[in-house]
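During the no-cost extension, the postdoctoral fellow (Dr. R.K.) reprocessed legacy sequence entries with the updated structure-token encoder. One reprocessed record is reproduced below for audit purposes.
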Amino acid sequence: MRHGKKVNHLGRQTAHRKAMLANMACSLIEHKRINTTVAKAKALKQFIEPLVTKSKADTTHNRRIVFSKLRQKEAVTELFRDVAAKIGDRPGGYTRIIKLGNRLGDNADMAMIELVDYNEIYNAGKVEKKTTRRSRRGGSKPAAAPAVDTKASNEEE
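Re-encoded structure tokens follow.
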């Protein structure tokens, strides 16, 4: 029985699967988006999200943990320097999976996985929120037309 075992084996032995995910994660960090199958993209998302969270705090311990998973010095350096600076304020959800349809050769479901903050198309419509807070007391309302006193106009008639 496999109760509670939720890892997708992707048809590979453990060492092959770990090496493949490490290579895909390094490619994702380097190129910011890669095309792969939907199953591999979902497995990669689970693999890389904790590593990006670790990269937000640049300590020697976190670098060593991430390096033990990725095993490429350049990818770790870029993750901690460039990617962490761009996603520093984001609380999670660093990657996005976009389905692309089926592959021509074997009809496999294909997807593009990308780092969220590096897509200019999706981020172009997003407007930064202003940090100023408006008071309800009406200190800076535009001047309205002068109010007409209805009592005074009724008394004249």
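The chain has a mean pLDDT of 87. Helices lie at 14-31, 38-55, 60-70, 73-86, 120-124, 150-156. The remaining legacy entries will be reprocessed before the final report is submitted.
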